[in-house]
Amino acid sequence: MALTKPTSQYVMIDILFERTKSPDGGGTSMNLVDLCVMETPTGKAKSYPLINVTPQRWEVHGIIIAVDTDAVDCIIKGDGGEDVGLLHLGMNEILRTRINYNQEFTREIEISDEGTKLVMRWKGVEMTQIDDGVVARFNNFAIGQLRAFQCTGDLSVLTEGISFLRKAIASTPCRHWNLPSYLSNIGSALMYRYERMGELSDISEAIAAQQKAVDLIPRGHADLPAHLSNLGCSLTRRFERTGELSDIAEAIAVQQKAMDLTPEGYTNLPNQLTNLGASFTCRFERTGELSDIVNAVAVQQKAVDITPLGHGDLPSLFNNLGGSLLRQFERTGELSVITNSIIVLRKAVDLTPRDHADLAGRLNNLGTSFIRRFNQTGELSDITNAIEAQQRAVALTPQDHADLPSRLNNLGGMFMCRFERIGELPDIANAITALQKAIDLIPRDHTELPRYLNCLGRTLACRFDRTGDLSDIANAISVLQKAVYLTAQGHSDLPLFLTTLGASFGCRFERMGQLSDIENAIAILQKAVDLTPQNHANLPGRLDVLGRSFISRFGQTGDLSDIVNAIAAQQKAVDLTPQGYAELPGYLANLGCSFGRRFARGGELSDIMNAIALQQKAKNLIPQGHPNLPKCLSMLGTSYTLRLVETGDLSDIANAITVQRKGVDLTPEGHAKLPAYLSDLGQSFYYRYRSSGHVGDLEEALLLYQAAAVATVGPPRLRLTGARRWAGRYSQLEDLSGLALEAAAAACALDRTEKALEWLEQGRCLVWSQINDLRTPLDTLRIYNATLANEIADVSRRLEHAGSSRGHSHPDMSMSKNTSLEDEALEHVGLASRWDELLKTARAITGFESFLMAPSCSAIMQHLPESGPVIVVNVYERRCDALVLLPGLDKPRHIPLPNFTVEKAVEYRIILDSQLRAHQLRVREVGGATSAESEFLLRSIRSAPIGKHGEDPPVHRVLRGLWEEVVKPVLEALGFSRADHTETPPRVWWCPTGPLSFLPLHAAGIYRGLDTVSVFDYVVSSYTPTVSAITDRVKNSGGRDDTASGLFLTSQPNVDGAPPIPGTTSEVHSIFDQATKGGVRVQKFEGDEMTVAECIARMQDFSCVHLACHGSQNAADPLQSSFLFHEGPLELGTILKSNLKNADLAFLSACQTSTGQERLSDEAVHLAAGMLAAGYRRVIATMWSIGDAPAQQVATTFYEYLFNHRDETDGAMFDATDSAVALHHATQQLRLTLDDSECSLLTWIPFVHFGL
Question: Which residues contact 1251 (CB under 8 A, 6 or more apart)?
Fold first, then answer.
């Protein structure tokens, strides 16, 4: 068809089509693409592309109408070519409108969809007498403005150019021979503005214009290849923004078509080649297909080769080639490729004028290539060059530029890399600042957002590894989960994001010890490895991280398959890593660590030999000053000590101390790993002490342990005072359980009893000690600063609630649920940080310098009970000692126990446990202790039968051993004598440690033969989990509300899933009747008469509570231990969250309420200790299961004693001060009805008293 050159026409301007719903809200979706204008009477038709500016709005900048037209039909077409709507406009109606920018004209369009309304709006119409020369001048002026923008970056110049191009297009008929050129030009101009501003509407309009230009150009026209190439570039850029694969596929198709149509020697061929290469690179970044990046480099290299030196496009061609070489290196890891990338990118930068708008982008690419080579070689000059180039790039980039986020992200990554190499904290602070700003600037729907989130998350995790700040790892996991969620399956970046997320879960596990974290880590990391191609340069690093996670889980579970998997993964990582790579030393050291862990488990000498060889090689490869050197040295030292234990070669311990000392010296103060390195070095000194007996080594070990303990950073398991963090701490306490006992034993050996007491108080019962910290009364502080005291109390309550309610994530959990859990964790971390800040503020007040700090020995001994001593019995493998705390002394009295050993304690524990199992004392039930109860009212105390050869039966043997080896030596040293039966014996408080915690010191004695004797003859015994648990109650003995004084009772005889205990009903009725007769304020509920919430309300209203029910203990999480009610479990965590400010006595007439966890013997993770932590001053509990009938007798006799010894002035109040004596009396009364058989002993022994 011949092209025409009309010179006069009418122009309708600023046309808008808008879709609205009908009044009834119906209608279907629309996708409008073209406006066809049919002129009457000539029948001429013109087509105009519709620009979709919003989901409901489409624009056309102008419609040209011939002067001889009578009317026009405006036909709206959809994306399938169908007619969507029609509007008929007569010229008389059109000409009545004139251009008036203060007025808008509107007509409704006829459409077939009754549920939708579509209107056409326009500003006016004018008749133009513009000839081709004027239109061409519009176009030429616009081209000049575009070139000025390219040089200056002045956005106003570009906007003016676009305006003139729109005038040129509006003035040019659809079939005019210049229209394709004008369309192509406005497409380029809009693309420039998109690159600057990032507005999707610009790129959509550009693609529509360029597509129209391609459609209008006749086949075979010389300009068609250039138009196709431009269209392909715009499609590629839109793909980069939206990730729509159809865009990049179409881009490559049209650019390859442009190549096919372009003859060799054509001047624009280099640009078309480089554009095609850029599209191949983009698709490679999305799919990871190696052939795409190979093709990209090939065509871009050809573009450079055919471009003459001095050509203005050469800097751009160099830049594009360098970028594709960079991507190829990231895929293959070939050093020559990244070196070539740096060479050509340097050329691009050197050839670009200093004031050129593209200089910033080229500097960005150069900096990225430097950082990639640094990551492979570790050459410090590369990281310096990278940061210098990137800082220039950011400085040259306008604040509103669409690429600023990308350049900030790259700069942040570079600071991060230098931090990992040098270890300077300002670098990581700068990194996080830049990365956060990048995320703040990038649109929420941008395809690069996941990559930015990944960089920020990795950096936060790295800072956590250095500083130990829990808020960093919580934030890291949160943003990394979002990065993974936003990344499509099959995306080439997904394995990278999964690796970073999995490694962060692993980091948090190392700090918190929560098994769900390491389970998540392994699942995620395994997926990352599975998605990584076998020849991918990043596969070794991902295998190494996976191996380290297997090792971490092995340390928690002891599952040998984990260590086998760890060694396999890490060995493969080492095998795949070429010599000279910067990451190789780390892989070697980690593999060596895994061999060492397997040696420690299996004892195969070849494993520890391999470990030392690998770690020595790693040490030799790590440059001096590298931040990873201390870690490697500590690992190597640990391997030396392991080999010492096997071979006895003292040179190993000397080598261990040498390398670990160097590691400590190289580690800066405040580093999160420093406590671990100090602890490892202390362990080596301790090993040498055990070999040589040199006291100086022991003292050095203790000093190092103490330095690790008082550090303000690092994992809680390496710091005895811990951090006030809740999630995941229980599973770590086993590691700590022996350390305090060991330290106390060493202090006793040096006659440092004050240190022994301090270390036992700081290193035992951490669960309840932390709760006690949070519940410490603030009355004194309120006198000086009421606002501060109230805020501390508020944060304390919120911390308790967070610790008792937080769940744990797992790999199959939904993104929203995972995010919710991580948000909870982050809030928890924020509370903990605020707690630390508040403590600092309080300690700055004169007189409060030690507020909530671990107390000194003198402080511990200030508030001892006046009625008897507190006796701490420390049990360790090398010695056992009693520390006696008496009022008026400034330090504990030391009583060595040379005849008792930890082996005996363990043996007694095993004997007792076997007898309990033999008698089926697992739950309180009607059939419990039946052999004793069958003669319950007939028998008196008489001697048990003698064994076959005169030896004691098992239980008697245990009780005799405890008497002769522990209790008797202590009582004799303190001058106790047998009490007169008419007098109340004096009181003592037992505080046992280690396996002794499971043994009944209160029942120690000889119960066979003529010379029977027991602790009952000398003292009234109570227990306390720690000394502070008693002293805190002495110190805070006042302040209770007398109106709350009274007794609340409940029985729960028939709980689903537990044996019936009908005796609890008669037990509660009997006690209730006694209380009522005595005028005591009392209330009772039975079974389903009461909900858990109502029970909490009664516990708040009454000072004393009697719970006759089953108990359930959870050693893994003591806060989930519970009392079993008809209406559901009453969990300890729920009780702790209640405000029991008047709590006095808790009688737990339930099974095994003071039974601890064998692996956590020094944590007292049982219900009795938990009720003390909840605020009760005294607790009655049982060490093992009790029979229904004995339980009733002890309970009723206990209360009968208290009611009979009430002061007449008490009125309705109930005073439990004599509860220990009452239990002593009740137990004695039960003994009078029994003999001294094994079964009888097991019937009365379990009843114990805790607290005041």
Answer: 1022, 1024, 1029, 1030, 1033, 1172, 1176, 1177, 1178, 1179
Contact (CB, 8 A) for 399 and 411: no
Contacts of 918 (CB under 8 A, 6+ apart): none
Encode 1206-1236: b = buried (16+ Cβ within 10 Å), e = exposed.
beeeeeebbbbebbbbbbbbbbebbbebbbb
**CA separation for the pair 552, 546 (Å, rounded):** 10
Of the candidates 305, 337, 343, the residue with the CA atom closest to the CA atom of residue 324: 337
Which tens digits make up the pLDDT trace of 356-398?
Answer: 989 999 999 999 999 989 888 878 899 999 999 999 999 999 9
Contact at 8 Å (CB) between 732 and 717? yes
pLDDT at position 819, please?
55
For residue 1222, CA distances in Å to 250, 982, 1017, 1073, 1248 come to 89, 15, 15, 18, 11
Give Cα 175 to chain centroid, integer Å. 63
CA dihedral 940, 941, 945, 946 (to 10 degrees): -160
SS3 379: coil
Q: Are residues 58 and 50 in contact, defined by beta-carbon separation less than 8 angstroms? A: yes
- Rounded to 5°, the CA angle 689-966-913 comes to 95
Predicted pLDDT at 540:
94
For the chain, the distance separating the N- and C-terminal CA atoms, rounded to the nearest angstrom, is 107
- Is the separation of the CB atoms in 802 and 824 below 8 Å? yes
Distance of CA 83 to the CA centre of its chain: 56
Closest CA to 1196 of 1171, 1220, 1227: 1227
Say if CB 1190 and CB 933 are below 8 A apart.
yes
Distance between CA atoms of residues 319 and 358, nearest Å? 10
Helical ranges in 603-673 per DSSP H: 605-621, 629-647, 650-666
Question: In angstroms, rounded to a whole number, what is the distance separating the alpha carbons of residues 1002 and 989?
Answer: 10
- CB distance 10 to 138 below 8 Å: no
Cα–Cα distance measured from residue 541 to residue 529, given in angstroms and rounded to the nearest whole number: 10
Q: Quote the CA–CA distance of 984 and 1219 in Å, as a whole number.
A: 13
Low-confidence ranges of the chain (pLDDT < 70): 1-8, 21-28, 95-103, 126-132, 174-175, 709-739, 763-779, 797, 800-826, 828, 921-950, 1038-1040, 1115-1118, 1150-1166
Cα separation, 284 vs 281, whole angstroms? 5
Summarised one tens digit per residue, pLDDT across range 573-584 is: 999 998 888 889
From CA 1118, how far away is CA 1134, in angstroms rounded? 12
Closest CA relative to residue 418, chosen from 366, 472, 374: 374
Tell me how far apart the alpha carbons of residues 897 and 765 are, in angstroms, rounded to a whole number. 23
AA letter at 428: I
- β-strands 1047-1051, 1104-1108: how paired? parallel
Buried b (16+ CB within 10 A) or exposed e, 927-949: ebbeebbeebeeeeeeebeeeee
Q: Which two tokens stand for residue 1049?
A: 């009772």
Which residues does residue 1187 pair with via DSSP β-bridges, in sequence order?
925
Q: Are 65 and 72 in contact (CB under 8 A)?
A: yes
Q: Are 717 and 734 in contact (CB under 8 A)?
A: no
| Distance of alpha carbon 907 from alpha carbon 853, whole angstroms | 37
- To 10 degrees, the CA torsion angle through 757, 758, 761, 766? -150
Strands 1178-1182 and 1247-1251: antiparallel
Task: Pull the structure tokens for residue 480.
Answer: 């990394």
For residue 602, give the amino acid letter: G
Measure Cα distances from 777 to 644, 766, 772, 789, 1226 in Å. Answer: 50, 19, 10, 9, 34
Give the distance, in angstroms, between the CA of residue 383 and the centroid of all CA atoms in the same chain.
30
Q: How far apart are CA 973 and CA 495, in angstroms?
A: 68
Q: Which amino acid is at 755?
A: K
R_g (Cα) of the chain, nearest Å: 41
197: Cα separation from own chain's centroid: 36
Residues 800 and 813: their CA atoms lie apart, in Å, by 26
